[in-house]
Amino acid sequence: MQITWYGHSTFGIDVDGESLLVDPFFDNPKTDTDPEELDPDHVLITHGHADHIGDVDRFRGAHFVSTPEIISYLTDEYGIEDGTGMNLGGTFETEEAYVTMVRADHSNGLDTDYGASGGMPAGYVVSDTKPTQVADEASQTFYHAGDTSLHTEIREVIAPYLEPDVAAVPIGDHFTMGPWQAAVAADWSGADYAIPMHYDSFPVIEQDTDDFVREVDAAGAQADVVVLDGDETFDLGDELGY
């Protein structure tokens, strides 16, 4: 599994040649990627804020996954052609991956004249094996926490049952967790690697990633912090020796 950070909360995930894209928003200072260069098979949307759906119109031909409310909104407002609506706790199976929608504590208003809600905000756990109560040591699993505050489901559900190897957590503060809460989330997730996201895109969420590194250490987390440059890829399979 290859995980590429395109800045903000935008990630590309390659699972055995199948490509998934999370929260396409390329108008951020960390990326030089032209979204027209990408051709994802699936696009996963955590919630409907503009800094998470800003470039969905570039990927109308992809298959979208989100809440039913978001899928309806993107179909009506952005002309997406293929979407699957699901809800928290559900797992969607692609050809190569299993995508489980998990809780995120945030808001989810849509940019419409009537102020509609996009339903519950979410995160995603993407794995190359089916999540079960029987641990699979050979699996590769990526947890995208979405825009969230610290919540105990990370410790009580996501860690023991979905077993992420990598956790991408927001550190920008103000709209999401800041560095110290994100460090606790990284610890609670049980992940071997923690990637900071959702920072430096606007002045109000500017952060020094060294603060996150120190907080992860202070939390006693097992995770190694991986601070990616924009457009940089982390090869999970190589790190795990698979």
TrEMBL record:
Annotated ranges, domain Metallo-beta-lactamase: 7-198
Organism: Halarchaeum grantii
Secreted listed as a keyword: no
Transmembrane segments annotated in the record for this chain: none
Protein name from the UniProt record: UPF0173 metal-dependent hydrolase GCM10009037_28290
Family: Belongs to the UPF0173 family.
InterPro entries associated with the record: Metallo-B-lactamas, RibonucZ/Hydroxyglut_hydro, UPF0173, UPF0173_UPF0282_UlaG_hydrolase
PANTHER family referenced in this protein's UniProt entry, alphabetically: UPF0173 METAL-DEPENDENT HYDROLASE MJ1163, UPF0173 METAL-DEPENDENT HYDROLASE MJ1163-RELATED
Keywords: Hydrolase
Annotated Gene3D superfamilies: Ribonuclease Z/Hydroxyacylglutathione hydrolase-like
